[in-house]
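Risk mitigation, structural track. In case the binding assays with iron/sulfur cluster fail to produce interpretable data, a predicted complex structure has been prepared as a fallback.
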Amino acid sequence: MSINSVSVNLKQKVKNLFTYPGGVKVDSHKIHDDDTNIRFCNVPERLTLSLSQHIGSPAIPVVNIGDKVLKGQVIADQTGHISARIHAPTSGIIEAIGQYPIPHPSGLTTKCIVIKSDGNDEWLPHKGATNPESLSPYDIRTYVENAGVVGLGGATFPSAVKIDKSPGVRIHTLIINGAECEPYISCDEALMKQRAEEVVLGARLIQKALLAKKCIIALEDDIPIAYERLTEITRHYLDHKVDVVQIPELYPSGGEKQLIQILTGLEVPTKKIPAQIGVSVINVATAASVYRAVYQGEPLISRIITLTGGALKTSTNVEVLLGTPIEHLLHHAGLDEQRLSRLIMGGPMMGFNLPSAQLPTLKATNCILAATEDELAPLEAAMPCIRCGRCADHCPMSLLPQQMYWYSKNHDLKKIQDYNIFDCIECGCCSYVCPSNIPLVQYFRYGKAEVHKDRCQKEKSDKARNRHELREQRLEIIKKEKAEKRKHMAARKKEMAAKKAKEAAEKAADNNPDNSSLESKPENEEDPIKAAMKRVQAKKEAMKKQQ
Ligand code: SF4
Ligand code: SF4
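Fallback model:
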């Protein structure tokens, strides 16, 4: 198929698409390289694997310092339902297990395993399914889980959990997301162009696992070669129909909720997830990893990363082993340190500044942007809000950024939640268009973090209060039990005294010669004790007289 015929198809498809509010047109700055092969970055001396490079519980090490490991060997196992395994990206020796800094806006450190490469890059023997097309949904999920696959579009949610159809949830449409709308980033484009078959076969497996009727691979309309290659591959597989759809280039069309809206016209309601409206969105690189896990039995140990920016000699997409130090990549791409102004992980809209290059790559690392001052000028000083409303006009989630900014700034946590701050996808459209240069997204991140902190504190104090109340209840019960016991003891004492007195009386009565006459008296006629005492007295007097 020629590129011209592709664009004819596009016009037909666009007619069936829907729109979403807001969004911005941004300069793409992408490398549209047409290499037939994605080049591999060489193996570094050391790899640092974070045990928390996915959403959910951190993985736990199953190796010890000094162990020899092979490429593809499990070095940390998943814990709990939402977690993912970590595998050795190359062969070598476990050199350390401990806390190391990882790329994160907060400068976070996490537990990591450090592997010193032995230079052999020797694989653990592995093989894929004999007949992948005949696997059951359960088998597909097992392969994906064993391979430690997570969402590579940035979410890093464990894929085995995502493709596990929850009871009562029916996924009718699977969307494979190749809409890489963020400027500078082109790793998904390279993948779709050069490994289109992996994407399509991976998409088919996921569709089968989810029992989804429909599968759409979506990509932006500025990469016709990728569209052509994907379309060509899907023609071979007519049993499960996979549609390849181009969408207009607009930021942030690759956002999960925006893409669903463009392709289906469905809106994901606030506080809901796509699965609740029958749609699942999975990134193209994740689909390719699912393909590798099932067809080749290969775990997720590498990913394609865009190395770009004016401070690099070569902008390129390379396949990188997870845990590779960022400085190793910058060296690979020929960094000119004199020209470097900002080092960013991700793109200029949603990425974050890296404090240093001595940090490892993660499963979520899709781009390293080494920008010059000309490319990304330092932020100008923020000025007061002029209430122009541009931020709201461009917000793809139909939020009111101006109000959210105001209440975040004033730490009014109730109000920011009333304005649905948690629906904000942090796309940065509002900051991008703000004429007052207000770093709105930073305020929203701060606001969300404060709400989380507040909720945690509230949860803590609720737990403490519950503990206190339970303790009070326990003490009250103990007090009552003690009182009951005391009462019971007093009654028992009284009973014993009465019994003793009665026994004494009976004994005295037994010693009385006129026993029969006493016995004949009705019991309640006179107090038996008094009567006994009288009898004792009478006996004493009788004895005196006898003397
Ligand atoms: S775009 Fe900026 S100046 Fe305009 S209303 Fe929004 S925050 Fe205020
Ligand atoms: S960052 Fe949030 S508030 Fe701003 S445009 Fe994006 S979704 Fe809307």
